Amino acid sequence: MRASTSTLSEIPSLFGVEGLVAVVTGGGTGIGLMIAKALEHNGATVYIVGRRLDVLERAAREHSRHGQLIPVRGDVTDRESMAAVAAAVRERHGFANVLVNNAGLATNFLPKLPGPGEADMKTYQALLWDAGTPAEFGAAFDVNVNAVWYASVAFLDLLDAGNRRGGGGATSQIITVASGGGFRKDDKVFSVPYTLSKSAATHLGKMLAHFLKDWQIRSNVIAPGIFPSEMVDGLISDEYVRAGVPLHRAGTIDDMGGLVLFLTSRAGSYLNGTVQLIDGGRLLLYPSSY
């Protein structure tokens, strides 16, 4: 094989997303809104999906730069609801280039666990017994795993149509927002249902890459560390972040936006089946499977 002698693309072409159509679940707040803004501010049309229409409409009013943040009410845990969201995109645009499965749920935060010298086994056993009710485990998997599967399937024809139209040098893509916590094996995880379900979501993202490889639809996973969001508001202090992240800060919209623009543009078009850990080095502090 001869080395390529083609000319390197200029930055606007290499990282450009203008004209793309993207769908972001949980796009009204937190990481989802960061992703939506990064894409819309750089020329993409972005459907932001969530259960709270008022939150989505406020996000569209306050954060749209080009008037291309489109709020659509949808419940990711309801297959028919997501089919209706796909139908709305199909009617308005007829295709999609990117689906971002971002909606997530964390339940039943785990307390600090005692060691053998601090409590007896019965006490320890009771804490683990209460690490999550069956309903809490089920809810976490419904939102963080099951919904990823059904939303992805609901949009396959639109992503296929995006490929047939051409997507600025990158084939259509599903991006699943999992979590760096999904790789942790330690007993300091803040939610057992969340950690296990995000681990499953990461594996699902890899599976989708295989399911869809012959259709030229890519699947990649983003595994964030600590970013500002409703999920962590009031739970994580500045002191905690400084002690728990080697870079001594939480992630920002530039951190997330830069990664998303890379993944969705020509620059990241050769990535498929990957996991992009973005956590400021946080996972380095814990035993993990990463």
Core attributes:
globular, 41% helix, 10 helices, 7 strands, single chain, alpha/beta, 290 residues, Rossmann fold
Please give the structural blueprint:
Blueprint: H1 11-14, E1 21-25, H2 30-40, E2 45-50, H3 53-63, E3 69-73, H4 79-92, E4 98-101, H5 121-129, H6 134-154, H7 156-165, E5 173-177, H8 192-211, E6 218-224, H9 238-244, H10 253-264, E7 275-278
Parallel strand pairs: 1-2, 1-4, 2-3, 4-5, 5-6, 6-7
What share of residues are in beta strands?
5-15%
Euclidean distance between termini CA atoms: 33 Å
For the CA atoms, what is the radius of gyration?
A: 20 Å
The helix count comes to 10
CATH superfamily: NAD(P)-binding Rossmann-like Domain
Low-confidence stretches: none
Mean pLDDT: 95
Give the structural class: alpha/beta
Count of domain modules: 1
CATH C-level class is: Alpha Beta
Query: H/E order of the elements?
Result: HEHEHEHEHHHEHEHHE
Under the CATH scheme, the architecture is 3-Layer(aba) Sandwich
| Portion of residues within helices | 40-55%
Coarse shape: globular
CATH topology: Rossmann fold
| Strand order in space, largest sheet | 3-2-1-4-5-6-7
